[in-house]
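This section describes the prediction task in plain terms. A model, or a person checking by hand, is given the sequence of a single protein chain and must write out its three-dimensional structure as a string of tokens. No templates, partner chains or ligands are provided. The sample shown here is typical of the held-out split.
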Amino acid sequence: MSQTENKTEFSMTEMGEETAERNRSNTNKKLYIFEQYVQPCLAELVGTSLFVFVGCASVIGNNEVPGVLQPAVAHGLALGVMIMIFGQISGGHFNPAVSLCAYLCGGMELRLLLPYVLAQMLGGMAGAGLARAVCPPAVYDLASGAAFKIENNDLALATLAELIMTTFLTMVVCMGAINGKTSSPMAPICIGLTVTANIFAGGVLSGACMNPVRAFGPAVVAGYWIHHWVFWVGPACGALVSVTLVRFFFGDQKTRIILK
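The expected answer:
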């Protein structure tokens, strides 16, 4: 074989290796984008949809024998199951207050915060829409589509109640799922039980929302916006209280910002 033919074969082999390497690089890049951005946001959207659907349906179907038992158990079980399923993909937030708290406590990156919140809002609307689709119109209208209402019109009391209950919830999330020293595989169950306990305790005070998209979805679908701001301000403030407590007092050395 001539020297020219050897050079040609070598060049073709080298080009083939470069092409294969580029293909592998492109595949790895697409896989990275999918697993780091697309898959977590889809998990938040689907998980929020299913959680809000179960929550809304439990409230709408609870009008014949009003009480907090059915909504409390339904919300808590649905959230715990969704966290177990999607926790390893997205963290299982399904709540803008939880996402805000997780970011500020070092449990997620800033680049995912806004996409998570948008996915959760879309999921809230989808879940509320599914509840409207399957529930009888008369029952649905009687419950205002499971939108949150403040019965006594005491907005300060309702906002404070939401702040306290969301502090409890986000504290459990941070200490049970994010903080290295106290994290536990039982976190999904603990978070679900916290939601159940809060609804038992505060359902008559503010509805025990603790989750802005749980209020947002039904508000969009049913067109019920009365005092809607309470269910954003209260949970957001509760998340900030949890962040303060964890960052200054209860976090491990990696999470704490003082006495490290």
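For orientation: The chain has a mean pLDDT of 91.
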